[in-house]
Task: structure prediction
Amino acid sequence: MRAPSIALGSLELVPLSDGFLALDGGAMFGVVPKPLWERVAPADARNRIRMAMRPLLVRGERTVLIDAGCGDKMDAKSAEIYAFDRSRHLDHALADAGLTATDIDVVLASHLHFDHAGGFTARGQDGVARPRFPRAQYIARTGEWEDAVHPHERNRASYFAENYVPLREAGVLTLVDGDREVAPGIRVRRTGGHTMHHQIVMIESGGQTAVFMADLIPTVAHVPLPWIMGYDLYPMDTLSFKRAFLREAVEREYLVFFEHDPTVSAGYLREKDGRVTVEPVVRG
Ligand SMILES: [Zn+2]
Result:
């Protein structure tokens, strides 16, 4: 199977997959009542909805991987809770794109929750977690790193040190502050909301812009303003960033990537009569 690839100026964008997981539907939609959300995201017998984990590959002067899914270090208890389906995972997706882990130059983190950063490291035969992409420099935001290494009761279930501390120990982690370019055409932009330092990734080439939205708008169902995850630590910050971002994305015709949507990888946001909808570009 060949991975779909999208040209953006001189860059090539390839949505990848690290499989699926299932999260509590109520937690995924915050204040939205179940009779509304279950129409668009049907729940299983344990009230969970199916979500994809879709890292994004950007090929240009450098080969950049944005997020890396949950990886293969999760224990049996987590597998039970989150129903991981990794029958096809990131290694398969990279192979479909003609790549292996050694081809990745830069790994960029939207934030350090396990479903985004778990794939940053892998355990060796000795059981020790090490950087999974041997040639890569990893980039995360300083504030996110500080939160991840000092978790509290409300976010502890999402942060696992083995996903990112080995990067620092191996000397392959660069922490960046502020909104800035991290590779040619690739810029990070803090949203806050989901975590205080959660960031999206703006990708620009040839006058076109694509955006990896990470957990700002994780699925197509999360496009309407009040559809905000219960997981978000600062939902009012999500709301204000999202309000401004949706307007910007419609006006400037950004190609947006949904990291968690089970069927739509990318699309354009269109507005009609004050309602924003998604015109899918890449499915599956
Ligand atoms: Zn997530």
